[in-house]
Amino acid sequence: MHEPTPIALSVDIEDWYHSVLGLSEGDWERVPDRVVETTETLLRVLADGQARGTFFVLGHVAARHPDLIRRIADAGHELACHGYAHRLVHRQTPEQFREDLQRSLEALDRAGAGPVRGYRAAYWSITREAAWALDILAEAGIEYDSSIYPTRTPIYGIPDAPHDPFRLHTPAGHSLIEYPPTVLRFPLRNLPIAGGIYLRLLPYPLVRAALRHCQRRGRAAMVYIHPPEFDPAKPRIPMPFAERLLHYTRLDAMRVKVPQLLRDFRFAPIGELLDKHIPRDTLPEWSLSSHP
């Protein structure tokens, strides 16, 4: 029997406060830093499950904790870029985005990351309105992106984007590979099923069935997680109700569901999947500018 292609495992290395929309970069120095502790917890979970993944590292974390970045690499994981300051791409100018990207790549280089092939925007925030960012990524030598979510939410998503890895042609004529997170197609909405708040909330049997469905159909699935999701005691600060739900709901679930996933499926870093399992010459092609 043919063994299914491993599922892409991706981790966004950020601290709990980086994704709080109401905190500015200047506020970060005044709140507790927990990223080393939570990332070490996650590294142990992955080591116990003999799983390797792609770690999209925030430049701010790489600058403050270069030893942590080296420990991630020493554990066999792929290092990729998550930007520097965890800001929505579609609220930046191209100049601001280029500066944030360069700042992050330099921090990763100083931490000993080596060549960086991949990028993921904060909050999946490369939307149709921010398509210009893809050209900046290509010009910086980024080989693959994982920022386009084929669904619709108030702050991210391009619902008509392909659901599987594809070769993306940018508005200025560059080309790079896009590796999207997994969704299931429903009549009214593409449903995210295997990461973040979606993974925390959905019943595990449903997540497992959805991933097996993808594998039976030959689809390239992805799971994504964040170290703060392994910290049920993470600090709590005032924030809007909807954002509070996003940050704190079912944090206890990940310490159970992720080990279950590691027992039920094989995982691999994105770069390894592109090199060994997904033929690049057969990837479908998609032009963002030609799909209004």
Features:
292 residues, alpha/beta, TIM Barrel, five-stranded parallel beta sheet, five-stranded mixed beta sheet, 10 helices
How helical, in percent, are the residues?
Answer: 25-40%
Q: In angstroms, what separates the terminal alpha carbons? A: 42 Å
Look at the helices and sheets and give the structural class: alpha/beta
Number of helical stretches of at least 4 residues? 10
What is the CATH class? Alpha Beta
Description:
By secondary structure, this protein is an alpha/beta fold. The chain has a single domain, classed as Glycoside hydrolase/deacetylase (TIM Barrel, Alpha-Beta Barrel), CATH 3.20.20. 34% of the residues lie in helices and 14% in strands. It is built from ten helices and twelve strands. Strands 1, 2, 3, 10 and 11 form a five-stranded parallel sheet that branches. It has a five-stranded mixed sheet with strand order 4-5-7-6-12, covered by helices on one side. The chain has a two-stranded antiparallel sheet with strand order 8-9. A hairpin with a 4-residue loop joins strand 8 and strand 9 (190-192). It starts with 6 loop residues before the first strand and ends in a 5-residue tail after the last strand. The model has no long low-confidence stretch (mean pLDDT 93).
